[in-house]
Specification:
- The structure holds two protein chains of two kinds.
- Chain A is an alpha/beta fold.
- Chain A is built from twelve helices and ten strands.
- In chain A, strands 6-7-8-3-9-10 form a six-stranded mixed beta sheet, with helices on both faces.
- In chain A, α5 packs across α6, α5 packs parallel to α8 and α6 crosses α8.
- By secondary structure, chain B is mainly α.
- Chain B has two domains: about 130 residues, no CATH class; about 220 residues, MetI-like fold, CATH 1.10.3720.10.
- Chain B contains 18 helices and three strands.
- In chain B, α10 packs parallel to α13 and α15 packs antiparallel against α18.
- Classes of the chains: A alpha/beta, B mainly alpha.
- Chains A and B meet through α4, α5 and α8 of A and α14 and α15 of B.
Chain lengths: ~300, ~425
C-alpha cells in the first residue's frame, strides 16, 4: 500500500518507493486512482491534445488511459510522486519514447490538430516544433555559439552567417544568458556553471522557434538562485511559447504554472487551474499529495 | 563478540589488513619487475647483436679511373660509360696495392676483400661526375661481409684457419690496410636504403620498409572507414534482433582467428579468383584489412558506447535526424577512441608475417617497390628471410631490422597514447 507519512518539508521525492509501487498489482491502483480524471482535461483551442494514451515498457503499464490538453501560451505543470509517469507522458509529446527500446505508445496525441504518431508526421519536424529541456543540463561539447547555432543550421533557419548570428543572439537574450557569455561565444558550452548550462540548453531549444517547449524537471539539478532565474525565464517565455513542465516541487508548480495536472501511478487523477488545485483539491489523492502526506 | 569497543576491534584488524595489502603490492611489483627483466633481457640481446649492423667496414683504395677501360673513344656517352668494366678498376687497384700476390685462388681471395657490388658503386660515381675519368682518386669501398665481420671482431683470430671463414692471408691484408689507415667503419646507409641482396654487405631494409609502408597504407585506407562504418551501424542503427546478435558473435570470433587463415583466404580469393598481382602490397593490405577489421570494429564500438546518451538525447530533442545525431555529435566524441583502436590495430598488422607468407610476400625482392602494385616484402618477412640465411653478417642485420621494427611499433603505440591523452583533455 502507499506509505503515508507526514513530511514537514513537504517536497522530498521518494524515488525508489515510487518505482516499487508502479510494479505492484494494478488492483490496488484501481482502488485509489479514479477511473475518470477529476476536473476538466480540455481547453478551448488547445495547442496539443492527448486522448486515451497508454504507454507500456514491455509488460509494465506506465501510462494508463490519460487524456489531457495543453493550451496555447500557458504553462502546464505536471506533478506527482516519483514513478507516476509524468516524464513518460512528457516524452510522448515529442516522441522521444521512440528512442527507447521496448516502449509502446497507444492513443491519440495531436499538435495543432495533426496526429503526431501518424505515418505522415516527420518526427524530425515534430521535434523542431516541440522542443525539450532535460533534467540534467546537456550542452553539446561544442562552443556556446555552435550549441545555439546547431539547430537553426540543420533546419535551415538562417540564410547566411549574419542571420545565424542574430538568431543566436536573440536566443541568448531571451534565455537571459547573453550578457554573461557575449564575450566568450567561442568557449565550450561545457565550461559554464550548472545554471548557465541549463539556460544555454533553454536558449538552444528556443533558437529553433518551437511552438511548444517541454521541460522535464529543469531545475532539479540546480541551486535555488539558478532555479529562481529559470522560473523567471519560464514566465517570460510564456508570452511566445506553450510550456509543459514536469516538476516534483509543488512550490515551483504553484509559482510558475497556470494549470496543473496531478499524476498518480500512471493515471491522471486531477487537473485544473493551479490556484484551484493547490487551494481546493477535489480528489483525496491530490489533497494527500499536496499536503505532504506522501511524496 | 568481545566486549571491546568497535574502534579497538577495527584497530586489531588493521594490522592484518595492511599486511595483506602489502603482500599484494609486493607481488604486483615483483610481477612488474619480472616483466621488465624479461623485456630488458630481450632488448639487450637484440640490441647487443644488432647495433653493429649500423656501421659498416670500408676499405680505401687508390682507384685509377682509366679512360681506356671506361670510355675508350672519349664519347662522353652515358650508355658507353655505363657499360665500362669497372670491376677492372678496383681489381687493378688491389693488385697494385698488394704486388706480391700470385696464383688464381689467392688473387681471387684478394679481390674478394671488397664487396662484389663495388663495380656498381664506381660506375655510379663516374656517371654522376664524368670529370673523374682520367683521374686518380682515393675511394672508400664497402668491404666484403666477411672482412666486415673480422674487423668488427666477430671472427675469432685464435681459431685454426680451417675453422675460420677468412684465411690468414686475408687477415694479413686487412691488417696491412688498417695500419695504413685504409680501413674505417662508417655509418651503414646501405642498410637503411638498399633492397634485399644475397650479399649481406649490400643488403638493406629499404625495400621491406617501403613494402611495409605501402601495405599499412592500404590496410589503413580500407579498414578504418569500413570498421568505423560497421561499428556505427551495429551500435546506432541496427535493430536488436537475432541477426544482429549473430553478426556480433561472428565479429568477436573473427578477432581470434589465427592470422594464417586470412592468408589462405587471400590466396584463394584475391590471387586465384580475382587474379591480383602476387606479392603486391595491395593484396597484403587487403588480407591485413580482413585481419584488423574486427579489432577496429570492437574498439570503435567501445568508443561509441562510451559517449553519454545525454548527448544523443539532446541532439534528437533539437530535431536532428538519427544520422545527423551520429555524425555531428556522437562520432566526433568517439573519434579519439576509434583512432587509438585503429593505431593499435595497425601496429598489430605491421608485425604480421603468416598471412603475408601465404600471398607470396616471402619472395626475394631486390627492387624497392614504387607503389602498392609492385612486388614487395614487409619488414617481419625480411627478418624471417634473413634469419634463415647462413652468413654471419645476416645475423647482425636481422637483429638490426628487429630493432627498426620495434622502434616503429613503439612509435605507433606512443602516438596512440599521445592522441588519446590530447583528445581526452579537450573533452
Amino acid at each position: 500500500m502507499i506509505d503515508t507519512h507526514t513530511n514537514a518539508i513537504g517536497d522530498v521525492a521518494a524515488l525508489p518507493r515510487g518505482f516499487i509501487e508502479l510494479g505492484r498489482a494494478t488492483a490496488e491502483r484501481h482502488d485509489d486512482a479514479p477511473e475518470e480524471t477529476v476536473g476538466d482535461v480540455t481547453v478551448a483551442e488547445p495547442r496539443m491534445s492527448a486522448r486515451g494514451v497508454f504507454v507500456h515498457y514491455g509488460d509494465k503499464r506506465a501510462i494508463d488511459n490519460v487524456s489531457l490538453d495543453i493550451g496555447r501560451n500557458e504553462v502546464l505543470a505536471m506533478i506527482g510522486p516519483s514513478g507516476c509517469g509524468k516524464s513518460t507522458f512528457l516524452r510522448c509529446l515529442n516522441r522521444m519514447n521512440d528512442t527507447i527500446e521496448n516502449c509502446r505508445v497507444n492513443g491519440d496525441i495531436s499538435l495543432d490538430g495533426e496526429d503526431i504518431y501518424h505515418r505522415s508526421m516527420d518526427v524530425v519536424l515534430l521535434r523542431a516544433r516541440v522542443g525539450m529541456v532535460f533534467q540534467k543540463p546537456n550542452p553539446f561539447p561544442k562552443s556556446i555559439y555552435d550549441n545555439i547555432a546547431y539547430g537553426p543550421r540543420i533546419h535551415g533557419l538562417a540564410a547566411n552567417r549574419a542571420e545565424l548570428d542574430a538568431i543566436v543572439e536573440t536566443a541568448l537574450v531571451k534565455a537571459g544568458l547573453w550578457d554573461e557569455v557575449k564575450d566568450r561565444l567561442a568557449e565550450p558550452g561545457t565550461g559554464l556553471s550548472g545554471g548557465q548550462q541549463q539556460r544555454l540548453c533553454i536558449a538552444r531549444t528556443i533558437a529553433v522557434s518551437p511552438e511548444v517547449i517541454l521541460m522535464d524537471e529543469p531545475c532539479s539539478a540546480l541551486d535555488p538562485i539558478a532555479t529562481a532565474r529559470i522560473e523567471e525565464l519560464i514566465d517570460e517565455l510564456r508570452q511566445n511559447f506553450t510550456i509543459a513542465i514536469v516538476t516534483h516541487s509543488m512550490q515551483q508548480a504553484a509559482r510558475v504554472s497556470q494549470r496543473t495536472a496531478y499524476f498518480h501511478l500512471g493515471r491522471l487523477v486531477e487537473v485544473g487551474s493551479t490556484e484551484d488545485i493547490f487551494t481546493n483539491p477535489r480528489h483525496r489523492l491530490t489533497e494527500d499529495y499536496i499536503t505532504g502526506r506522501f511524496g | 563478540m568481545t566486549d571491546a569497543a568497535p574502534a579497538d576491534l577495527v584497530r586489531r584488524s588493521l594490522a592484518r589488513r595492511y599486511a595483506a595489502e602489502q603482500r599484494f603490492r609486493r607481488l604486483g611489483l615483483a610481477a612488474v619487475a619480472v616483466g621488465i627483466a624479461f623485456v630488458a633481457v630481450l632488448l639487450v640481446s637484440i640490441v647487443g647483436k644488432g647495433y653493429s649492423a649500423f656501421v659498416q667496414t670500408q676499405i680505401a683504395l687508390d682507384i685509377e679511373f682509366d679512360r681506356s677501360v671506361i670510355d675508350p673513344d672519349a664519347s662522353g656517352d652515358p650508355e658507353v660509360i655505363a657499360r665500362g668494366d669497372f670491376g677492372r678498376l678496383y681489381k687493378d687497384a688491389l693488385k697494385a696495392r698488394f704486388e706480391g700476390v700470385t696464383g688464381r685462388s689467392q688473387v681471387r681471395q684478394l679481390y674478394g676483400i671488397v664487396s662484389s657490388g663495388s663495380p656498381y658503386r664506381l660506375r655510379d660515381m663516374v656517371l654522376e661526375d664524368p670529370a673523374l675519368i682520367g683521374t686518380r682518386q682515393r675511394v672508400w669501398l664497402i668491404a666484403d661481409d666477411e672482412v666486415d665481420m673480422l674487423v668488427k671482431g666477430y671472427i675469432s683470430r685464435d681459431v685454426p684457419e680451417s675453422e675460420r671463414r677468412v684465411s690468414d692471408e686475408v687477415i694479413g691484408w686487412v691488417d696491412e690496410l688498417a695500419a695504413d689507415d685504409a680501413v674505417r667503419k662508417a655509418f651503414n646507409w646501405t642498410f637503411l636504403t638498399a633492397g634485399d641482396s644475397r650479399e649481406p654487405e649490400q643488403a638493406g631494409i629499404g625495400g621491406a620498409v617501403m613494402g611495409s609502408l605501402y601495405t599499412l597504407l592500404v590496410t589503413l585506407v580500407l579498414s578504418f572507414p569500413a570498421g568505423v562504418a560497421a561499428a556505427i551501424y551495429l551500435e546506432e542503427f541496427a535493430p536488436k534482433n537475432a541477426f544482429t546478435d549473430m553478426i556480433e558473435v561472428n565479429i568477436n570470433n573473427l578477432a581470434a582467428v589465427p592470422s594464417i587463415v586470412f592468408g589462405l583466404l587471400g590466396l584463394a580469393v584475391f590471387l586465384n579468383f580475382f587474379g591480383m598481382p602476387r606479392s603486391a602490397p595491395v593484396v597484403g593490405g587487403l588480407v591485413l584489412t580482413l585481419m584488423t577489421l574486427p579489432t577496429v570494429i570492437i574498439a570503435s564500438r567501445a568508443a561509441l558506447k562510451s559517449v553519454p546518451p545525454s548527448i544523443r538525447q539532446a541532439a534528437l530533442g533539437i530535431g536532428a535526424s538519427r544520422v545527423q545525431t551520429v555524425f555531428h555529435h556522437v562520432l566526433p566524441q568517439a573519434m579519439p577512441g576509434m583512432m587509438t583502436g585503429t593505431i593499435i590495430g595497425m601496429a598489430q598488422a605491421l608485425g604480421e608475417t603468416a598471412p603475408l607468407l601465404m600471398i607470396g610476400m616471402v619472395a626475394f625482392i631486390v627492387e624497392i617497390p614504387g607503389g602498392p602494385f609492385d612486388p614487395a616484402t614487409v619488414l617481419p618477412v625480411q627478418i624471417f628471410l634473413w634469419a634463415d640465411s647462413p652468413e654471419r653478417a645476416f645475423l647482425e642485420r636481422s637483429s638490426a631490422a628487429i630493432m627498426v621494427l620495434l622502434a616503429f611499433l613503439v612509435a605507433m603505440n606512443a602516438l596512440a597514447v599521445v592522441l588519446r591523452k590530447r583528445f581526452e583533455k579537450r573533452w
